[in-house]
Design a protein that fits this description.
single chain, 394 residues, mainly alpha, 17 helices, 0% strand
Length: 394
C-alpha cells in the first residue's frame, strides 16, 4: 500500500518537476536577466522541493523528510511575493520592508528548531503523529499561514491596481506592461489557499480520512499556476523594463521621491487636495486640448505626458493634475478617447474601405492590433469591424 501511494504521488509530482526544469532552462537562457528573473527561479525551486518532498514523505516519513516538506512549503509564498513586488517596481531592488512577507515562515522555522532540538526528542512514532495529527501549536502556524497568505494576496491586488493607475498617468500606450496576467495568478493562488484551508479543516474534524488528496490537489493546481506564471514572467515586461524602454522620461528613484517637495510629487485622479489654483489648472488643460485638437498629438503612438509637459513648458505632475481635475480621467484615458474618435471617423468614411482596419487603427495612434481591438471595444462596445459594418450599411 505504501509503495502504491508513493508511486501515485510520484506520477503526479514528478511531471511537475519536469515542467519546472523546462521553464528554468528558458529563464536561464533569457538575455538581459533582471533580479526578478532570479527570484522566479527561486519560486520554481521551492515548488520543486515541495513536490519532491511529498514523494519523499510518502516513501519514508522521517525527521528529515518531515522538516524538509514543512519548511519549504512555508517559504514558497515569500519567494513569490517578492518576485511579484519586483514586477511592479521601477527599480530592480528588494526593499527591506518586503521581508514582512517571510515573517510567518521565519517564525515557524525558529519554532521548529526549538521544538525539535530543545523542547522534544521525537522518535519515529512521534513524527508520524506530528504529520497526521499535529498539536495545537502546529495548527496555529498551518492555518495562520494560510490566512496570512490570503490577506497578503488581497493587499497585493490593491498594489497592482495602484501601479496600473500610476502608469496610466504617464503613458498613452501601456500594452507591454498590462498586469492582468499577474492579477489572474493572484486570484487563482488565493483560491488555492482557501480550498487548502477548508480541506485541512475538514480533515482535522475527521470528515475525511486521507490527507493525501489535499496535497495532491494543491500541488497539481500550483504546478499549473506556476506554469502560467513562468510563461508570462518570461514573456511580459516588468515595470522596470517598461520604464527603461522610455528613456527620455526621467522617473524618480525611491530616494529622490523622498527628497522632493510635496508639490512636485505625482498624484492620482482621486487626490482631494490640489496645489494648483483652479485658473492655472484650466489654462493648462486648455493647452492640452489645443495640442490634441489642433496639433493632433494623440496620433503619436508613443505619446507620453512628458511630451505634453515639454510642449507646454510645464512639469508632468502639473499636466497630470490638470487633466485629472478638469477631465476627471487619467492621461491614458484622455488620449485613447481621442484616438477612438479619430478611428471612428476613419471607419465611417466610405472612401477608406480600401484600407485595412489595422492600418487605420495604427494611423489613429494605436500601436498594435491587440490595443486597437481592446480599447475600441472598451469605448464603443463593438469591435472595429462591427462598427465599420454598421456605419457603412447605415
Amino acid at each position: 500500500m505504501l509503495v502504491q501511494e508513493t508511486l501515485d504521488m510520484a506520477s503526479i509530482n514528478l511531471p511537475g518537476v519536469c515542467i519546472i526544469a523546462f521553464f528554468l532552462l528558458f529563464v536561464f537562457r533569457k538575455s538581459n536577466k533582471q533580479l526578478s528573473d532570479y527570484l522566479l527561479v527561486i519560486v520554481n525551486l521551492f515548488l520543486a522541493c515541495i513536490l519532491v518532498s511529498d514523494v519523499w514523505i510518502q516513501w519514508q516519513l522521517t525527521h528529515a523528510s518531515f522538516l524538509f516538506q514543512t519548511v519549504t512549503s512555508f517559504y514558497l509564498f515569500p519567494a513569490f511575493f517578492m518576485y511579484g513586488l519586483l514586477i511592479l517596481e521601477r527599480e530592480q531592488k528588494i526593499h527591506p520592508m518586503w521581508w514582512w512577507s517571510a515573517s510567518v515562515a521565519i517564525g515557524f522555522t525558529v519554532f521548529l528548531l526549538l521544538d525539535f532540538w530543545v523542547f522534544h526528542d521525537y522518535d519515529s512514532a512521534d513524527i508520524r503523529r506530528l504529520y497526521e495529527a499535529p498539536p495545537l501549536t502546529y495548527h496555529v502556524f498551518y492555518k495562520g499561514n494560510k490566512l496570512f497568505i490570503i490577506a497578503a494576496l488581497w493587499w497585493f491586488l490593491g498594489k497592482i491596481n495602484a501601479r496600473q493607475a500610476d502608469i496610466k498617468q504617464e503613458f498613452s500606450s501601456i500594452e507591454p506592461i498590462r498586469l492582468s496576467w499577474l492579477k489572474q495568478f493572484l486570484w487563482v493562488y488565493m483560491v488555492i489557499n482557501m480550498i487548502a484551508l477548508v480541506g485541512f479543516l475538514v480533515y482535522n474534524f475527521g470528515l475525511v480520512e486521507d490527507i493525501a488528496w489535499i496535497f495532491g490537489l494543491m500541488n497539481g493546481s500550483l504546478v499549473i499556476c506556476i506554469f502560467f506564471l513562468c510563461f508570462n514572467g518570461i514573456r511580459q515586461y516588468t515595470v522596470a523594463e517598461f520604464y527603461e524602454s522610455h528613456l527620455h522620461v526621467s522617473f524618480p528613484t525611491s530616494q529622490e521621491k523622498e527628497d522632493r517637495p510635496v508639490e512636485d510629487m505625482p498624484i492620482g485622479p482621486s487626490a482631494k487636495v490640489s496645489t494648483l489654483a483652479d485658473l492655472d489648472m484650466r489654462e493648462l488643460y486648455e493647452g492640452v486640448i489645443r495640442l490634441l485638437e489642433e496639433d493632433k498629438v494623440f496620433l503619436e503612438s508613443q505619446l507620453q505626458i512628458q511630451d505634453l509637459a515639454d510642449r507646454l513648458a510645464s512639469s508632468p505632475h502639473r499636466i497630470s493634475q490638470a487633466i485629472n481635475s478638469q477631465a476627471n480621467k487619467p492621461f491614458y484615458d484622455l488620449i485613447n478617447g481621442y484616438r477612438v474618435e479619430h478611428f471612428k471617423q476613419l471607419l465611417s468614411t466610405p472612401d477608406n474601405r480600401q484600407y485595412t482596419i489595422l492600418a487605420m487603427g495604427l494611423d489613429s495612434g494605436f500601436n498594435s492590433k491587440a490595443s486597437i481591438n481592446r480599447i475600441f471595444k472598451q469605448y464603443t462596445g463593438q469591435s472595429p469591424r462591427e462598427f465599420q459594418k454598421a456605419q457603412l450599411l447605415g
